[in-house]
Amino acid sequence: MGSIISGAARAFPNARLPMGEEFYRNVIDVCGSIYRGEPPWAYVKKSGLYGKGERRIAQLGCAKVLCDSLAALTFSSQADIFCQSTVQQEYAMGILQENGFWEKAPAFFSRAYALGGGALKIYIEDGKVSLDFVSAEDFIPTGNGRGGICEGIFGTSFLRDGRQFVLYEKHGMAGGHAVIERKLFEVKNGGGYSEIPVEEVFEGLSEHSEFPKMDVPMFAYFRPAGDNNLSEDSLLGLSCFANCTDTLKALDIAFDSFSREFVLGRKRIIVPSSCIRTVVDPDSGRISRYFDADDEVYQALKCDEEQDLKITDNTCELRVSEHVEAINALLDILCFQVGLSSGTLSFNSSGGLKTAAEVKSMETRTEITMQSNRCLAAELIESTVRCIIRCGQMCGAIPLEEVNVRVSFSDRQTVDKSEIIDRNIRLVQAGLLSRVSAVMAALECSEEDAVREIEKIRKERKEFDLL
């Protein structure tokens, strides 16, 4: 992953690149491996008399669970997008729908939490606006402005006609409009790079493009909330678990011990030596000793004491509760380190993620963390939609006019419905809320629909009374 820095330096030698190749290699690369289930501690030496080599430990996969949980809390419901005009809003929503934004967004945010950021690249292909979801390992932020990150370099690897290529795109702003520079390299068999013209692979695409009507960058960048304490004065974000890899390692060790408890705790019996038989392997000549548990034939054994023939159960007791308590204690430590409330992550059936209603019922660390990241996610969507509208205006799909975008998140999909209904019933009974307003809040309908629903209820009650 650190090759993005060296590749960008090869493509744009005059660009001001961050001195972050070590950060990409030691932080982003390591966090990506942990997220994919290949942490540095994945293998341990085998133990035992005949133990040779290494074995893969059983993993709890907390890094993936943590990132998915944070993505769910941040993007738990579809965002509400409000544009300057209905035409702009319908066009932007249509582009997002065509590119599967709402389906791909949770996975994008999960990877962004794991790697410390991500970017949405907007481009025009065959007269249509498209989106590309780029992870932190393939993007270098190189400059920022009043609206956030406005300059960056993208690295894209792809195969075409059996040949491997790497395309580097440098996005920036010059004279108040967007500018893109491109460099294309072919990867040789020996690992070398050979620069070739961009037009040779991408017909109609030049190495330098300017967009006079585009007053915003053609990408949007998201980085998780919080300071990057591992790379000071850096535009790069930090993985949500970069500072707690020791806890993730301890969790995997505890879970591996929990899994091996069932292997090492299998039923064992102690039998007298006279009950042991031997068998010779005809191929190797090796003698193996075993106890035949299926033997039901009477045997005449020579022994002086009756105790010598006693079979003893030596099965160990499984330490299930101790392991569960240890894992839950480590999960609480992990929640503390990443800014979540204690118990947000749990290893038993009574725990798990809290609903948005439970979170909002008390000012918790989870609520604060969720709101901080939701503000950044809203900025990402606003920048993306603004760029989509500008691209649509460039293509002539929508009229050229002022662009004004606002994004807000709603908890309507995560709020506990029973809590809403109970609260409205209490307000109606106390005379503090009308029945129409209560039905509107409970059913999320208009006033006309609420009135019709109340009339249906009254009619059904009269018919029931007549019976």
Note the main sheet: 6 strands, antiparallel
Spatial extent as radius of gyration: 31 Å
Number of strands: 17
* Shape by Cα distribution: flat
Count of distinct structural domains: 3
Helix content: 25-40%
Mean pLDDT: 82
- Give the distance, in angstroms, between the N- and C-terminal Cα atoms: 75 Å
H/E series: HHEEHEHHEEEEEEEEEHEEEEHHHEHHH
Low-confidence stretches: 351-357, 359-363
- As a percent range, the share of strand residues is 15-25%
What would you call the structural class?
Answer: alpha+beta
Total count of helical runs of at least 4 residues: 12
Outline the structure in words.
Helices cover 39% and strands 20% of the residues. The chain contains 12 helices and 17 strands. The chain has helices spanning 3-11, 21-35, 62-74, 86-98, 101-115, 245-264, 320-338, 356-360, 365-395, 417-429, 435-443, 447-466, and strands spanning 43-45, 54-56, 80-82, 118-125, 128-135, 139-145, 148-160, 163-174, 177-187, 193-196, 208-211, 219-222, 269-270, 277-280, 287-290, 312-313, 406-408. The protein is flat and about 90 Å long. The relative contact order is 0.13.
